[in-house]
Design goal:
Layout lengths: L36 H10 L16 H8 L7 H4 L22 H8 L8 E3 H12 L3 H15 L4 E3 L34 H13 L6 H18 L4 E2 L1 H19 L13 H7 L2 E2 L6 E2 L21 H14 L7 E2 L8 E2 L2 H5 L13 H18 L7 H15 L19 H4 L8
Antiparallel strand pairs: 1-2, 3-6, 4-5, 6-7
Helix pairs in contact: 5-6, 6-14, 8-9, 9-11, 9-13, 13-14
């Protein structure tokens, strides 16, 4: 894949941004996502979960509700789950050379001192901070931290905003690490688009001031289709399309929803969302102040026994795809709008995966992570003179993440399958066309 990083949940822009730490941001940025409608009938004909065979329902019987009811409700412990935003963790707006970028969650953490207030942290800072503020489990946060350090940093640390000089030269960096903002494609593309924020806010108000995964999944499908309709360069890549985009949407609810004894799995209200996204004012007269994201007052994270893991993400990826199988369609527009053509996954993977197998077990996340490894050397060669240290770190992280998932062995992918997509072939290393 041709882009610059990975810890930022991307490729919703039709470009393959390879970042993952800003995974809390992409659902309401100015990107061009899409729903490959032209591909859908073919995909559904192959997918055992499509065409009503496992038709998703809405409301109290949605698959997301079933997930919650099928297990034991997490406990709520106010003293353990409370996240302070006072004292040492009071809000302080960024100033001077402080870095802020595309991820509202990370920006809020830095503004409250759960990350270095400079906005530049080591991998352990991100692992500890996401646990302290959101209740993210170490398996997932470690994977994300490694992707951030490898693709956006100097293998040990990275900026949540723009480029910063590194005192290290591991692997022979070919310039200053670009940070998470460097993962986004043009200028300030990563800034929140209020019209998109308002759309989700309105749906939440219509749902008794509750923004849940059904609302977010529906919005994701709408925005997917919008990309097909308007972006001739749209490309839904294996890693960023299947894993990163899914995380971008599910994390909004799973991590930002406020936990309580009444709502142990969380309630995401409009005011909580406004706080995390640096939005003030009353509807519809909202104002957005980039970099001023805040942890809400009286806010509680996930319980220690319910930290969000890689397995939780897998469940959410599959549940979203049950409602919209097109989310797992790898492919893109071919240079004109409404020209989406899907990749033949069997040809792409040498028969290891197919459209019908992606929703089986853990195959979707397995394929996404394995694809990221296969494409990493090309990306990293534009960042490091010697890619071996970066590849070793990335390979180890992916190996740990997939250990025990029963992933099929994918030794290579036939990337020539992507040659028909200008969103893949014409993207330059700086993220522009």
């Amino acid at each position: 894949m041709k882009a610059s990083s990975i810890f930022t949940v991307l490729c919703l822009t039709g470009q393959q941004a390879w970042a993952f730490p800003s995974i809390l941001s992409e659902a309401m940025l100015h990107f061009r996502d899409a729903d490959p409608q032209a591909e859908r009938s073919q995909f559904e004909s192959q997918c055992p979960y499509a065409n009503g065979k496992h038709k998703a329902e809405s409301g109290p019987t949605s698959p997301f509700t079933k997930r919650q009811a099928s297990g034991i409700m997490p406990p709520f412990d106010a003293s353990q789950q409370y996240v302070s935003n006072t004292g040492a963790h009071q809000f302080i707006a960024p100033s001077g050379n402080d870095q802020r970028g595309p991820c509202p969650g990370l920006n809020a953490m830095a503004n409250h001192g759960y990350l270095p207030r400079s906005g530049v942290g080591k991998m352990q800072d991100f692992i500890d901070g996401t646990a302290a503020v959101f209740g993210m489990a170490a398996d997932l946060s470690t994977l994300l931290a490694v992707y951030g350090a490898v693709f956006d940093g100097d293998l040990t640390s990275y900026s949540i905003g723009g480029p910063v000089n590194s005192l290290l030269n591991l692997g022979g960096l070919l310039g200053a690490p670009q940070g998470l903002s460097g993962s986004h494609n043009n200028g300030n593309d990563y800034l929140l688009q209020l019209s998109q924020f308002e759309a989700i806010y309105e749906l939440g108000q219509q749902n008794s001031d509750s923004i849940d995964l059904d609302i977010l999944t529906s919005q994701r499908a709408t925005r997917f289709q919008n990309s097909i309709d308007n972006n001739p360069y749209f490309f839904n890549a294996p890693f960023s399309g299947l894993a990163v985009t899914s995380g971008a949407w599910t994390f909004i609810y799973r991590l930002m929803a406020n936990k309580s004894s009444e709502h142990p799995e969380g309630l995401l209200t409009g005011n909580v969302l406004k706080s995390f996204y640096a939005v003030t004012g009353d509807y519809p007269n909202f104002q957005y102040t980039p970099g001023h994201e805040r942890i809400p007052d009286n806010w509680y994270k996930r319980n220690l026994v319910d930290y969000y893991t890689i397995l939780d993400l897998i469940v959410d990826i599959n549940l979203m795809a049950l409602q919209h199988p097109e989310f797992l369609s790898v492919g893109g527009n071919t240079g004109t709008i409404d020209s989406f053509v899907g990749v033949d996954l069997q040809n792409l993977t040498g028969g290891v995966y197919s459209a019908s197998s992606l929703l089986q077990g853990n195959n979707a996340i397995c394929f996404a992570l394995q694809a990221s490894l296969q494409e990493a050397p090309d990306i990293l060669s534009k960042i490091f003179a010697d890619v071996s240290a970066a590849l070793d770190k990335l390979g180890s992280a992916v190996g740990q993440a997939t250990d025990g998932l029963g992933c099929p062995v994918l030794s290579e992918i036939n990337s020539s399958q992507f040659d028909m997509y200008p969103g893949y072939t014409k993207l330059k290393s700086n993220g522009q066309y």
